Amino acid sequence: MMRLRRYDGGMTGTIPTLEQIDALHRKVAPSQAAYDLIHTHCVIVADITRRLAHRQNALFMRRCTLPDAHAEQVDVPPTDGVAGGLVPPRYIDVDTAVRGAMVHDIGTYLVLREDGADGGPLKFGDDYIEHGLLGYRLLLDEGVDESIAQFARNHTGVGLTREAVERQHLPLPPDDYVPVNLEQEIVMVADKYNSKSVPPRFLTAATYARKAARFGEANRDEWLGLVRKYGEPPVAELADHYHQKLT
């Protein structure tokens, strides 16, 4: 579903630092509770993204030392707790992927129905499906480069196609909202292992597969293919580290 190409449209804005991204979260968040939930989710997704990217790069570097340069699978010990995965076609830009992970859900602040400012629980509105596009537009308005803003636009589910938008009558302009490079795809995958439910929780690959199956067997199979491609992060270890439940 991913279009394997790098964004090559040239610089259209700035590449924010992690400090600038944090400042943007604080600027957009309507409450401390909203910041705590959404920013923490982005931190977790960035952590998983970094691990998956490091795993991909370890596999790529190992392939470069093998006689058969076309081997798809190589025997490499776990990297940052991630085992499995297939050799990528190129080296992953870890810094860009991590920046993308930190902004990918910036639009969810804009679809909160209850922001928790009064001490009540956070609740997202029925327009949640729009958060990716809203986040993308927000980032562009803030002067963030297109190459980073696209992480917000292209991370929903396992890739939201024009066909799915039209078939499901989603409140989005008909278009493909799918990763256009490996870095975006890694963030999309990492995002599936952590939920912003209240309270937030980690999901195993099997748990998300069941969730994906609600949208059809093809959707589930797409997810399982991504798990095979990138390996599985150590979600039990991460759940303990971030003091969240694992389901």
Automatic annotation (TrEMBL):
Signal peptide: none annotated. The keyword Chloroplast does not apply. InterPro entries: HD_domain. One of its GO terms (molecular function) is hydrolase activity. Residues 40-193 form the HD domain. The keyword rRNA-binding does not apply. Keywords: Hydrolase. It holds the Pfam family HD. This is Phosphohydrolase. It comes from Bifidobacterium italicum.
